[in-house]
């Protein structure tokens, strides 16, 4: 497979539907790194190591030196937004990064200007789109997005493009007949089917052009048979959904540890306060429902109550998100975890995580963009489950239960990279070290 991976030649365009706090923090961060002003902390592609061979060989190269990823200096940014602000103005408004840093990269940020967005307030009730596309049908809007991608490539002399959804959470709805097949979906675009959301229009346009698409929100978007079918037809990788950042990141770290020690869990109460655009959107019950479904599935899939009812059969899991403008992008989460141990004796764990939503999400955007570009050059198409590591509600084949344990997800990701590069997979069994010793002594 190593020989089949195309080189990362030329420029890589990263387009983001949504150019708010997450996208601008990501773009500003990469530019700052390229100018030597900061380090890409939190980006596995840039800071992470991977073990190769036996432990005795002590081979731990950086991932970016092991697999042929695009160089950060070769990235060109673009995207769409419902507001006309350039990235500098949007970053100032988001109040995530310090003004002193933004001033040092102001010319680069001002040069990145959004394209008009596809917007339908039915799907995001708490936002008012001002800088939006118009068209007679959703098919026309998809064509406009395709034109945007092609024009961006030509204008920036870009060799390859990937799209990472950084927009808002859309309202909750379930897949229906229009999502079942590609033929139904294209008919629905031409007939303005109300069950085709804006995020699906972006995804359709990207996949139609063979452009990889990753979904950073809990929206249905590419998690429908029609767009999975299109991704295979155009030999294009997809990954979704919902960036794993604050509270859910902590859950996928803590819950596997409790399960590994066979400790029981009676209840897990989670609440958040958040004041950015994401928090405003989630203040609407229909949009919160989409996020709630994404968050609730994590513990159920890690603990699997049906396989161990003595430990998890009566778990009560509650999630709340409250919009609190004074906190801005500084999300604060509280978790109360009621656990029990030997002979059923109760204990409690309290977690108070004061995080920064976009600071945690920005490196995920970078990693997903670089890895899904690698997948495209490695001729991989359809659902990329090995990218579950970054996602709150991983997309899998219909017959597969998603894996939420972050440590298993990391192992899957690293073994996929080893497989791509022709290296031996690592199981961490380790018996061979001791078998050699037995052979020597026998």
From TrEMBL:
<dbReference type="InterPro" id="IPR002587">
    <property type="entry name" value="Myo-inos-1-P_Synthase"/>
</dbReference>
<dbReference type="Pfam" id="PF01658">
    <property type="entry name" value="Inos-1-P_synth"/>
</dbReference>
<feature type="domain" description="Myo-inositol-1-phosphate synthase GAPDH-like">
    <location>
        <begin position="246"/>
        <end position="358"/>
    </location>
</feature>
<dbReference type="Pfam" id="PF07994">
    <property type="entry name" value="NAD_binding_5"/>
</dbReference>
<keyword id="KW-0812">Transmembrane</keyword>
<dbReference type="InterPro" id="IPR013021">
    <property type="entry name" value="Myo-inos-1-P_Synthase_GAPDH"/>
</dbReference>
<comment type="similarity">
    <text>Belongs to the myo-inositol 1-phosphate synthase family.</text>
</comment>
<protein>
    <submittedName>
        <fullName>Myo-inositol-1-phosphate synthase</fullName>
    </submittedName>
</protein>
<dbReference type="GO" id="GO:0004512">
    <property type="term" value="F:inositol-3-phosphate synthase activity"/>
</dbReference>
<dbReference type="InterPro" id="IPR036291">
    <property type="entry name" value="NAD(P)-bd_dom_sf"/>
</dbReference>
<dbReference type="GO" id="GO:0006021">
    <property type="term" value="P:inositol biosynthetic process"/>
</dbReference>
<keyword id="KW-0472">Membrane</keyword>
<keyword id="KW-1133">Transmembrane helix</keyword>
<feature type="transmembrane region" description="Helical">
    <location>
        <begin position="12"/>
        <end position="33"/>
    </location>
</feature>
<dbReference type="GO" id="GO:0008654">
    <property type="term" value="P:phospholipid biosynthetic process"/>
</dbReference>
